[in-house]
Amino acid sequence: MDAILRVLIAGLVATIVLTVVLRGSQLMGLTRMDLPLILGLWVTRDRERAKFVGIFVHILVGWPLAAIYAGVFWLLGGASWWLGALLGLGHGAFVLLVVLPGLPGVHPRMASERTGPDPTRHLQPPGLAGLNYGRRTAVATIIGHVLYGLVLGVLLR
């Protein structure tokens, strides 16, 4: 039970760090990707409410991923900051190369690369590596995910 509680706490802390880095990079003008808005608009049409709801959606998505990291740490013989950072690098690359480009196919309010916006789809598609939201989007995403893994590696050591 102690191990499960540690994973839950570490996962919550790491996900909050990731969320703050991604949201902060948008607020500082490093990227135009507003992740809370994108995730929140999956749940509600209200753009102002979506920004708030999206933060909790991101935490609810990122939190359970800590269990996957914990499983990988266990399989590889233990957690460390460098292994967590390495896993985070892979996680960030997966998000940039698979998740973000795939969003238009599943997001109810996101335009696609081929069809463009219609009256119900007001979000710009991220494109490969999120490049439609700016060149620094990939950098911010990688940094956030490396920190996510690093925090998990430290807290689960």
Description:
With 157 residues, the protein is mainly alpha-helical. The chain has one domain. It is 68% helix and 0% strand. Helix 1 packs across helix 3 and helix 1 packs antiparallel against helix 5. It starts with a helix and ends with a helix.
Order of helices and strands: HHHHH
Helical/strand content category: mainly alpha
Helical residue percent band = 55-70%
Q: What share of residues are in beta strands?
A: under 5%
> What radius of gyration results from the CA coordinates?
16 Å
Rough outline: globular
Q: Low-confidence spans: pLDDT under 50, at least 5 residues? A: none
Q: How many domain regions?
A: 1
Report, as a whole number of angstroms, the end-to-end distance. Answer: 16 Å
Q: Quick one: how many beta strands?
A: 0
Describe the biggest sheet? Answer: none
- Total helices: the number is 5
Mean pLDDT: 92
